[in-house]
Design a protein that fits this description.
two-stranded antiparallel ribbon; alpha/beta; TIM Barrel; 11 strands; nine-stranded parallel β-sheet; about 50% helix
Length: about 475
């Protein structure tokens, strides 16, 4: 029986409840009165339960779908303004003992080039990322207790934070590694990570067990309960996601929201971020072999409904998606994107050929970070390299309370503009800098508090004169 307060995965991700939710959504996808009432409830910016949101996702009434898309855009604007946070993945190792059938890192793949960065190679990779202008990284590794133990990850984090190159510095490291113990999560917290990220891949237990036939990841409950152990270990910002295409998308959508409800109920804070990757081609992985793929229109509807259901949660889209899809997704709820990404081990220093690839998936958006930054500004967004909340202790329930009340806006836009100014001064092409200077002057006027506006303007001038790293 569904119990969001339970610490057992089979209870808070209850298969019977999900199937009943899908049945309810199918029965009501033409129920104009109910759908309109759910949309009206969502206008209060307090979110929706998984059943309500599932009805919106199933809705196929054109004018009501238009309302859903419009509301998603409005909610995104209310909570995140025009800001888009920038990050890049850094792959430390692709050694893996698991047998995941959708990932080229699976243990039986003898074709993919296996690599693990030394600390010296990490310095080179991070220096290259700093030369691009990145301030926030997401560490990625395969699961291999021999080749990639927790001590290696911790040493790598220490190395990354130690690297100062010209005006470059990685100010926040988020970590995407396999489910682990409370003790190891405490170690990650002590190492100064930002968000702990772990994708469920699929919430459908039977499918999960088939997709993960061997290795420690085969344990569905241990994997699904990882966020609870992370929070017990002191990590109060966690990031969830599923790999769309492995199972029925409406099942995954309901499971994802039930996981968010569980975290909110038990720990008082839901996921800091939700990611929405779709399965893509990579080495020996053919996405057409999986029969639950979704088209772009369905993908965008999912994004809109997640944004409405959990309005306070950051949403991430990576370079798995094309420029055109990412542009549409930004309008519907996405608040974080990667730019200039490499999904191979060591790929920032030495880009790999297709014949000798260690990439986890093919990248669809191959533009440089500078091109992505200019593109965002041309679309009316403010690229942000801000990490202030992490470094000021505004995490977990402290961040969420500020976000839900709207008070976070007093910090976010000023910090975004100051970090954008740093990027323009240190890394941008002349064309990008020209566009960015106009964006900063226009957005300065959008800061409502006169004192905050004045201080932000002063710090922007200080950055022009060579100073760095101001934050509210």
């Amino acid at each position: 029986m569904y119990d969001r307060y339970s610490m057992v995965a089979d209870d808070f991700i209850d298969d019977g409840e999900i199937n009943e939710t899908l049945r309810f959504a199918d029965e009501n996808k033409h129920n104009r009165e109910l759908i309109s009432s759910i949309i009206e409830k969502a206008r209060n910016r307090k979110g929706l339960e998984h059943r309500e949101a599932s009805v919106l996702l199933a809705c196929d009434i054109p004018d009501l779908n238009d309302e859903i898309y419009k509301l998603a855009g409005e909610i995104k604007k209310d909570f995140y303004g025009d800001r888009i946070v920038m990050f890049a993945p850094l792959y430390l190792s692709n050694y893996c003992v698991n047998g995941c059938v959708y990932c080229p890192y699976h243990a039986k793949n003898k074709h993919i080039a296996r690599k693990k960065l030394t600390q010296a190679e990490i310095v080179a990779e991070v220096t290259a990322l700093q030369d691009m202008g990145h301030k926030r990284l997401a560490l990625e590794t395969g699961e291999d207790p021999v080749n990639c133990p927790i001590d290696y990850v911790l040493e790598s984090i220490k190395t990354i934070y130690s690297i100062k190159h010209k005006n470059g510095a990685i100010r926040r490291v988020n970590v995407n590694i396999a489910a682990t113990t409370v003790e190891n999560y405490r170690k990650l917290k002590e190492a100064g990570i930002g968000t702990y990220i772990l994708f469920q891949e699929t919430y459908h237990k039977a499918s999960y067990l088939e997709l993960h036939p061997t290795g420690p990841k085969h344990d569905y409950n241990y994997h699904t309960e990882a966020m609870d152990r992370a929070m017990e270990g002191g990590i109060d910002d966690v990031g969830c996601g599923v790999l769309f295409g492995l199972e029925r998308y409406r099942y995954e959508f309901a499971g994802l929201l039930m996981h968010a409800e569980h975290l909110e109920a038990v720990h008082g804070v839901g996921p800091h971020t939700i990611s929405v990757p779709r399965i893509k081609h990579a080495d020996d992985i053919d996405p057409s072999a999986f029969d639950n793929g979704i088209d772009d229109e369905t993908f965008l509807k999912i994004i809109a409904c997640i944004r409405i259901a959990v309005p306070y949660t950051g949403m991430i889209i990576s370079t798995r998606e094309s420029k055109s899809v990412r542009e549409k997704a930004l309008r519907l709820g996405i608040s974080q994107i990667s730019g200039g990404s490499r999904t191979s081990v060591g790929g920032y220093v030495v880009p790999e050929s297709d014949d000798d690839s260690s990439a986890q998936f093919d990248v669809s958006d191959n533009r440089s970070l500078d091109e992505v930054v200019k593109w965002l500004m041309d679309l009316g967004y403010v690229p942000s390299f801000c990490t202030a909340c992490y470094r000021e202790g505004r995490t977990g329930d402290r961040f969420m309370s500020l976000c839900k009340s709207g008070q976070i806006q007093n910090c976010c836009l000023p910090n975004a503009l100051m970090t954008l100014k740093e990027y323009l001064m240190d890394y941008a092409s002349p064309e990008t800098r020209a566009v960015g200077e106009k964006v900063i002057q226009e957005q300065l006027q959008e800061i409502p508090n006169p004192r905050t506006r004045e201080v932000t303007g002063r710090h922007i001038a200080d950055i022009e004169n060579g100073e760095r790293d101001f934050r509210f």
